[in-house]
């Protein structure tokens, strides 16, 4: 149970345990907490109040290269890859325990830095512990295959770690994204250079302290704070990095893919979406309204899989929008530390301005603003990056607000006539991350899910995800899958081993 506090004034107390020098939170390279090579720093702001919360070392290319070199040494010369899987698993189980022991602290730290309500960060922290446990368990499970080939040969495969993995993550789930990347990579025996978003590095740095306390071998995990343009780009380009795994915007994904071609490093990309949430007239009305809200307004819409396009069967439209608007207006927007808050601020002033621009574009394009479309009123709204739940109706498929990822609390409503129309509209996007369907006709629900060009789908629900199940997108929503056994395999190479059981010359050449 988290004891909530009215606001985040005592952030200093919350951050007291982070490793600091001269009040600067340090990054983690080769098992040491260090400043940036050039001494640069960045001040992090509380998204709910614009008040400074911490000063963090702002790394650059030199720091990224030092971390990559440490990870390279740890992989090529260190004990990690050679360590029995049981021993790696033991450390990962203990890391999960540490996260749980410090759940309250991590939850508050995440809300302070990211702004989302405590109940959301609480889930993220619990999921993070679960993810380490899942992969700790998987590390010791059967792997590889054997083949029934002609005697006297024997043929089999083993899975081996890829090597040094660069991992670049966004600000919307700072701890959880770090763990989704680190857990499978470490379980498989890789070494890692993780770059959190420059806006939200705090919980990843706390995780680094747990890693230090548990005495992971030096260089196995490195966490470099700093901007994408320098630290991220260096990781993506480096020939000493064997794989880069990225979560973030599609544009950035493209530049990472280009940078990765230098040494043809393996890539996995988890990118944006404009996911359809399809409601048929035979759906359970109250359930569908409830999940339509959750689909878009969880984490203030800053979710790659957000149900940002609501597709309503025509006959349902007016009644559904009426109910939706009524409930959207009641969503309590506020400081994540306030226990009453249901939706927090956007991550930054710049991001809130970007979302506001989209709202203006929607108006200019002729969409009808059914609710919201403005900043939160009052003192809180003037200080923080709050935009209230917003709904556009009377849209057309060509509109920018229908096609582009807004990544904020903005829902666009579309209408369809029948099943085939719903499928056509749902797939009318460059993305393919997720999609939901609400209907009481289970056969129809399954038919539509199978037709959605998307990697993650839900029937009569939206958003639940599990460490056991693969996460990732079709089309321009990415490449590869995270989580589950798929996510583990993505951090391994497969080696074929052929053995001759009759050791004698082949006689292929006569001479
Ligand atoms: P980015 O994609 O730019 O950021 C994600 C991560 O990539 C951050 O760690 C960032 O670093 C890093 N990065 C940025 N540029 C580069 C680069 N050239 N090379 C390597 N790494 C880089 O997301 P933004 O924060 O700019 O958000 C832009 C849009 O992306 C959002 O509006 C949203 O539409 C989408 N997005 C999607 C997410 C998802 O989960 N799919 C998550 C976040 C954003 P840093 O931030 O430190 O500069």
Describe the structure.
- The protein has helices at residues 11-14, 61-76, 85-101, 103-114, 118-139, 174-187, 202-213, 228-237, 250-259, 285-297, 317-330, 349-364, 378-383, 400-403, 419-426, 442-451, 484-489, and strands spanning 20-21, 24-25, 27-29, 32-34, 41-45, 52-57, 146-147, 153-161, 164-168, 191-195, 221-223, 243-247, 266-270, 276-279, 309-313, 368-371, 390-393, 410-416, 434-438, 456-459, 478-479, 492-500.
- With 511 residues, it is an alpha/beta fold.
- The strands form 5 sheets. The protein has a 7-stranded mixed beta sheet, with helices on both faces. The chain has a 6-stranded mixed beta sheet with strand order 11-10-9-12-13-21, with helices on both faces.
- A hairpin with a 2-residue loop joins strand 1 (20-21) and strand 2.
- The longest helix has 22 residues, at 118-139.
- It starts with 10 loop residues before the first helix and ends in an 11-residue tail after the last strand.
- Mean pLDDT is 96; it is low at 1-6.
- The structure holds NADPH dihydro-nicotinamide-adenine-dinucleotide phosphate (NDP).
Q: Order of strands side by side in the largest beta sheet?
A: 16-17-18-15-14-19-20
General shape: globular
Q: Count the helices. How many?
A: 17
Bound small molecules, by name, code or SMILES, are: NADPH dihydro-nicotinamide-adenine-dinucleotide phosphate
**Approximate helicity band:** 25-40%
Mean pLDDT: 96
Strand content: 15-25%
Task: Point out poorly predicted stretches.
Answer: 1-6
| Biggest sheet statistics | 7 strands, mixed
Q: Would you report the number of β strands?
A: 22
Backbone CA Rg: 24 Å
Q: Span between N and C termini? A: 80 Å
Structural class: alpha/beta
């Amino acid at each position: 149970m988290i004891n909530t506090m009215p606001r985040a004034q005592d952030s200093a107390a919350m951050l007291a345990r982070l490793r600091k020098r001269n009040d600067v939170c340090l990054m983690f390279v080769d098992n040491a907490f260090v400043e940036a090579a050039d001494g640069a720093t960045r001040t992090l702001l509380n998204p709910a109040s614009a008040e400074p919360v911490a000063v963090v070392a702002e790394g650059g290319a030199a720091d990224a290269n030092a971390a990559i070199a440490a990870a390279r040494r740890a992989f090529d010369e260190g004990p990690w890859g050679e360590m029995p899987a049981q021993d790696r698993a033991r450390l990962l189980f203990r890391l999960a325990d540490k996260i749980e022991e410090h759940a309250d602290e991590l939850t508050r730290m995440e809300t302070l830095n990211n702004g989302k309500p405590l109940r959301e960060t609480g889930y993220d922290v619990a999921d993070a512990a679960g993810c380490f446990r899942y992969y700790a368990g998987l590390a010791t499970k059967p792997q590889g295959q054997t083949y029934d080939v002609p005697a006297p040969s024997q043929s089999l495969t083993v899975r081996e770690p890829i090597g040094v993995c660069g991992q670049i993550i966004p600000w919307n789930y700072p701890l959880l994204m770090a763990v989704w990347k680190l857990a499978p990579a470490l379980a498989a025996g890789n070494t890692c250079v993780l770059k959190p978003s420059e806006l939200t590095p705090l919980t990843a740095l706390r995780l680094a302290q747990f890693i230090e306390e548990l005495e992971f071998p030096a260089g196995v995990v490195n966490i470099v704070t700093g901007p994408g343009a320098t630290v991220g780009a260096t990781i993506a380009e480096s020939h000493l990095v064997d794989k880069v795994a990225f979560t973030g915007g599609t544009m950035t994904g493209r530049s990472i893919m280009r940078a990765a071609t230098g040494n043809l490093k393996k890539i996995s990309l988890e990118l944006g979406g404009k996911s359809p949430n399809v409601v048929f007239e035979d759906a359970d009305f109250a359930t569908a309204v409830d999940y339509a809200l959750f689909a878009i307004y969880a984490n203030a819409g800053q979710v790659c899989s957000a149900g940002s396009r609501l597709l309503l069967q025509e006959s349902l439209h007016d009644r559904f929008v009426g109910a939706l608007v009524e409930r959207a207006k009641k969503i309590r927007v506020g400081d994540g530390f306030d226990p009453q808050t249901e939706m927090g601020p956007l991550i930054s002033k710049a991001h809130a301005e970007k979302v506001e621009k989209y709202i203006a574009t929607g108006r200019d394009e002729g969409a009808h603003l059914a609710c919201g479309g403005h900043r939160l009123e009052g003192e809180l709204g003037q200080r923080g990056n709050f935009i209230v739940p917003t709904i556009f109706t009377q849209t057309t498929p060509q509109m920018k607000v229908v096609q582009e990822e807004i990544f904020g609390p903005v829902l666009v409503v579309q209408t369809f006539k029948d099943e085939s129309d719903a499928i056509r509209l749902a797939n009318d996007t460059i993305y393919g991350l997720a999609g939901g369907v609400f209907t009481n006709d289970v056969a129809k629900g399954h038919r539509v899910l199978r037709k959605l060009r998307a990697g993650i789908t839900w029937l009569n629900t939206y958003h639940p995800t599990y460490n056991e199940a693969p996460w990732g997108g079709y089309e321009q929503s990415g490449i590869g899958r995270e989580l589950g056994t798929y996510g583990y395999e993505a951090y391994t190479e497969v080696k074929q081993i052929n053995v001759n059981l009759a050791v004698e010359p082949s006689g292929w050449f006569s001479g």
